[in-house]
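FORM 7B - TANDEM STRUCTURE REPORT

SECTION 1: FIRST PROTEIN
SEQUENCE AND TOKENS:
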Amino acid sequence: MTPKRGYMTDDGKRPHRFSEGQGFDEDYSDFSLDPPELSVDPTKVDPVDSRVLTDILDQRNIDPEDVDIEKLLDVALSYMQINRFEEATEAFERVARFAGDDDDIAQEAWVNKGAAHGQLEEWDEAIGSYREALKLDDDSEHAATAHTNLAYALWEAGQTADALDHAERAVELDPRFPQAWYNRGFFLHERGLNEDAVNAFDNAIRLGMRTPGVHEEKARALEELGRDEEAEQAQQQADDLREQAEAELVEEY
């Protein structure tokens, strides 16, 4: 299993999606990738045409003050929705550059840019984007997501030494962030701190994380603590959740 990465949110107004490192097999209610309804003028911006963004936003052709950053951010998010991650990285960087004094929008853009790089497995670029986000503000509403995403990217890039520190910081910033607790538990388990890892996984579950992965990771930690009966129960919960998801998928189709 792997730690989890996620797209940031702005207090529920712009929900994004979390995914496990091995594909998109879960949705977390506060973080789904479905963007708000786009209000972009289709005569000016086609969300699936990367050339239009370049033409419209080139500073040689338009005054930055005339750019509607919120609408541009929606366009960038639409690239994520249709898995056009390369175009998304370019669009999010333009949002950040055009944001001016709006650090909140710029930080959101940098975090999402990192997530897009992550989908492309461009971990160095993802790490750079998350660090740019944290340079703007290490104590904002987006900082917890930036830290937990950075922890994931560092782990994927083989830079594991600092991953736990960022996972810990994410929990400090937002103790009701289940994804942060999951990542904290994962990295604690990797270091052999299994009692603390189990507590972290329990917090993630209490805060609403209902995925097979969190129960499986808890089972692994419990096994290493010699708590075999509890480990079996946790693994059974993971199996039940997976079977339930498969049954729902069959019914849907």
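SECTION 2: SECOND PROTEIN
SEQUENCE AND TOKENS:
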Amino acid sequence: MSSGNLKKVKLSVGPGSLSGVKISNVIIVINRTKPHAPQTASALKSFFDRKKVRQEWVETLPPQKSLFRKMTDLRGSRADLAIAVGGDGTLLQAAHRFRSSGVPILGINIGYLGFITSIHGDRIMQEMKRVLNAEFIVSQRTALDLEIRNGKKRVAGWALNDALITRGGNPHLIGIEARIGDRRLTSYRCDGLVVATPTGSTAYSLAAGGPIISPECNVLTITPICPQSLTNRSVVVNSTEPIEMQLTAMSGPAEVQVDGMKLAMLSPASTICVKTSADTVPIAFLPEINYYDVLAEKLKWRGDGLGNKS
């Protein structure tokens, strides 16, 4: 999967090249709820044992209250590579748990779509030999910092895919005022609002009608969910500008989520600020992977619609 920010495993080396550093120490984050997890884990362990690679196995954290706050356990880890075995959700969780560590994350897909995973579960043995020789590129992916302000109270958040304001259990539409930097954008009446990174543009934002953004682009997207006004559409903004949002005075309560995890409740007295994070996410991909081929495969693009590629 291509990116405009491709670097070697050693991040000081120039863009677009492969690393010559061999992999000898890995941390595997595995989602054992996936049907093929036992076979995949057994195959990986046998392979690493034969190659005398030091391994640490960590399971994904299950859905739970305050999950976002609990995903700090691997940030001080030292490893040559982290391997996320599951789907995109597993890699997202790994990104949170390894945040700021600088450890590249390689995804093995035994889930469903797998937009940000690199290796199919049925090709582990063939591709892992290359991975151990560091035959991969690292794409530095844009992430988001959030701050929710309510008087003197501050709540901080972070996301790789998206930040979401949603009405949650509130049965009514919510009203949201949005600003880009110091300029007013618009007012929304909707079920929610998604601020997505290019990586997150193929997630919730896409389901809400947002555009697909190449990870090479330094932009963010703002997409309303089921807006009352049919002319409310996605807006693409420069990633250097902060996005500020606030519930309107007559709006009911709302909830803020980061990458699908609840962060905080929101009231009209609260202001949420979203901006590009200094903590990018180093995601490892096999060098031949082409972002646009991935889109065509995952979204079933078929040329003329009859199975023939134009």
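SECTION 3: OBSERVATIONS ON SECOND PROTEIN
Confidence is low (pLDDT under 50) at residues 1-19.
Residues 169 and 254 are 8 Å apart (CA to CA).

SECTION 4: SIGNATURE
Preparer initials: ____
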